[in-house]
Amino acid sequence: MMASSFRDCKAWRAGGLPLSTSSNEACKLYDAILTQFVKWRNDETLGGFEGCISALQEADPNFVMGHVISTGLELVSTTSSTRLNERLASAVRRTVELANSQDISPREKLHVKAMELFSRGHFPKACDVWEDILVDHPTDMLALKFAHDAYFYMGAQTQMRDSVARVLPHWKPHMPLFSYLNGLYSFGLLETRLYDQAEKVAMEGLALTPDDAWAVHSVAHVYEMKAEVDKGLKFMESREKDWQVSDVLASHNYWHWALYFIEKGQYEAALQIYDSQVFRRCKATGSMLDTVDACSMLCRLEMEGVCVKDRWRELLQVTQPHTDDHVTLFNDMHFLMASLGAKESGTSQRLLEGLQELAKEPGDNQQHQLAGTIGVPMCQAIMEYDQGNYNRSVELLYPLRYRVVEIGGSDAQRDIFNQLLIHAAMKSENKRHQKLGRCLLVERDAMRPSSPLTERLMQRALALHN
């Protein structure tokens, strides 16, 4: 039996979010899965996500919202594509069939519709449907979280912030998961460059719930974006005990910690985190967030002149099976870094050609619609850089620099493409590109005063071009 702290049929009804099932156990398990989703944590005392999902299917195999949350979570993890994974595709179909054969509430019908749209890569439309739910049910945490994740995959920064801002007044401190809204809101504030407010809101959340790993993550971003490296190092270390229990986000928080070391030029410390935390976890879980972090980290270290070639080969074992997924452009570009780093040109070529193919007839898939104009040229730019064709790499990347946000992820994650462009411009034979590289460094310095990384690159530019 589920612990009494989770909501049964009556409690969900009382909260204005009735669920169409007569099983109290199913309602509680739904709550348990939602809670772990919000906390970024497999709670072993509950059997983790997998244990709860199996128990939920047993408690009521026809519970529509049970299918929505379990299939929705798999879709949102971007680990698998319904184009290639028949089991996942049929789970989506099964949910739609169940919804059509039962008398469920309008809110639940919308949840099914949003999940189905998301499964086809129609992210913007899925978000519209989740927002429709939130207009009438502002305390529907599942709609809020799913929308938050989908906005993140689209690089829809303002939407990510405003989606949470609109519902905040409707939440009250006694409601389950209330304190986690701070972390969600803070992240939207941060991605719209409201750093001071983002830090304040996250800290308020941490005062209520010290182990809210998403709020910690938000503060880590603030220090990253402002290049307040020592503050960041101190913060992550002082709260490590709190956030490392959130196993789904722990690796990503360790990644942020390592970025501070890379910023300071302390590569050994960064590699230590890569080996003991980031790669170890991504190999164990296959989580996409952990996997792209590993790719990004090795690529950043390599640009800094650190030799990581054996690590690329190991990482390729994790990324290679996803070569044909093409769920998000952001993932694709990171897989490409791994296949290039491992000198696996067949895999790199296959990834690019697969993307070119999907760009021809993208249908409703928002990521495939962007593949032709952004995804393919960015992949080509990364490949040209890898082959030492810096001139061509700049020509491909520079015109896209203000559109890179559309591939999704956070400013901190996308910074790798800013760095790549700067390195390509500095290494290019073209005098104009070299000048451009220096301009980009001046611009970077204005946004992140006293960044040690920028300082190093400026020194290098002077040494190269004098």
From TrEMBL:
Keywords: Repeat, TPR repeat. Transmembrane segments: none annotated. CDD domains: StaR_like. The keyword Repeat applies. The keyword Repeat applies. InterPro entries: TPR-like_helical_dom_sf, TTC38. Belongs to the TTC38 family. This is Tetratricopeptide repeat protein 38.
